[in-house]
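Let us practice reading a record.
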Amino acid sequence: MSHTPQPLGAPVVRREGRDKVTGAARYSAERNLPGCLYAWPVPATVPRGRVTAIRTDDALALPGVRAVLTHENAPRTEKPDDPILAVLQDDRVPHRGWQIALVVADTLEGARAGAEALHITYETAPHDVVLTEDHPGLYTPRTANGGYPAVRERGDFDRAFAAAPVRIDATYTLGALHNHPMEPHASTAHWSPDGHLTLYDSGQGATTVRDSLATVFGLRPDQVTVVSEHVGGGFGSKGTPRPQTVLAAMAALHTGHPVELAMPRRHMAAVVGHRAPTVQRVRLGAEADGTLTSVAHEVISHTSTVKEFVEQAAVPARVMYGSAHSRTVHRVTALDVPSPSWMRAPGEAPGMYALESALDELASALGIDPVELRLRNDPADEPDSGKPFSSRGLAACLREGAARFGWHDRDPRPAIRREGALLLGTGVASATYPVYISASHASAHAAADGSYRIAVNATDIGTGARTVLAQIAAGVLATPVENVTVDIGNSELPDAPLAGGSSGTASWGWSVHKAATELVRQLGERTGPLPDGGVTATADTGSETAAESPYARHAFGAQFAEVAVDSRTGEVRVRRMLGVFAAGRILNSRTARSQFVGGMTMGLGMALTEGSTMDPVFGDFTESDLASYHVPSCADAVGIEAHWIDEEDPHLNPMGSKGIGEIGIVGAAAAIGNAVRHATGTRLRTLPLTPDRLLPHLP
């Protein structure tokens, strides 16, 4: 390894990579605490109602079974900040899969056997789990996720749309999607004799989990320690605490032993969140030259009866293309379904699929190249807010991508290119994701031996946070990156926000940059050797991040895809994908490319393989494991390339960076769908584009 300073942006190898591939990295369900017991959750098997009885005698008689927790004997908790954490507190069953008991045993196998030996009876009630366009329970919420207004109108959409010479009116539907990180949601809990709770948790933010558990168990935050040292993916589903955190802590409190609880894969669809299904109507009115005059994006989705969660899918239409007249609306209905939650690029991923598909339909109706149509409607200011963009590299991404992809060599006519039975096509879509930054704390320490240590309660969910934060600090300290140690993933470190909303590196990095800058100042004022204890500087970015920016801050991208559709089987294969992104300064080219490609791969799954259906009678998701919910394999994800443009933006943070974890998924599904339409001449408006859906429309 080099011992010379490396510039920010260099492809520094992830410092925990070897630990992960050799098994040295320990995850939340691998703590092996002395005397640890194992827990197995018991889900409700009715779609709505209440538990009338749980007979535990047979389970408790099994060898090794230590306890069965139910609503009748579980520790009482305080009202949580998230209603999904109010587990084992009453007899209600708001949806199938809601956890109604927990069996604790000496072994995992014993706990599972105990769960199967329970005898449970219910009183059922009628249920409603199917989202429809005309559902009588639909209402308009005050806000959508992120605090965005649910409804925004500019100008007179109805008049402008009626007068437009060219109009598109199309409805796009997406079923539910599931995050399915490789590591399931898992927690290992331990209570010390003085009442201090320690939780090893697979979560995206140890500070957030600590505060939630303190609320639930009536503790001060300093009486809870949450450790999230290594996390095997989350994609949003671990962004806030999930029930296993409370259940593990309950079981440890009840038994007096450490307790490990790893969520069974088949249970996850019902308890850790999902991307809600959506019905999206997009209407575009344009002049003959392609200038948009009117844009409407109206979204219907579901939430649960447990809490309101409104996917903000119409929000991207407020950002992307200029038009004098606009209407963006979210409506939602509360059904007897599991609570939806965050999933990679919430709002942007489903919303941009619909908007970018409609743009492609408009390009076809106008006879204008899809890239050119987007360029003609690229605004200088954010349409909805009127703020100038801090930087907007969409046009550069489109032009660079078109050149790299060979876009302008294509025949625009649909269903023309063939290789035997294969129909070939290409498609393009834009991508966007907002810049989010939250307040963070960090410390920077200079040791007497010349080394440095950074402390910040960041979480590395597989993105390479340790490495990039070390690079940020090393750049300020003017020292080789290997001379900087980074401590993260423990709530006893300086408080920091969760890894979510593509905001982690920007938020943590700002506080690290500030702490390192202060350390440099302190060291510059000193003479002579450092004391044995070294010197420490701290930073809090609360004041900087609280100020509202006068700029609209977003990352942008352009994604291109080439597909081959087998006219005999309906199978779609993506031959190549290209993403070009404008995301401020790229801090580590190696980890950034990994994030972009990973997001595009997830978008490929959204387009072609991933789908989840709600059984109207059974009342739960049919595809509840990885045998039936099909994520892309390595054989599916071939020829995926990611590039970026050099974008200088002084209005972001000291590093000049934008988030990159989510924008990769945003335009991918639309680009593939548009390519399938170009290949076949048929526009299908429901994802995923599986063979059974395509085959009836193929020659």
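A brief commentary: The mean pLDDT is 97.
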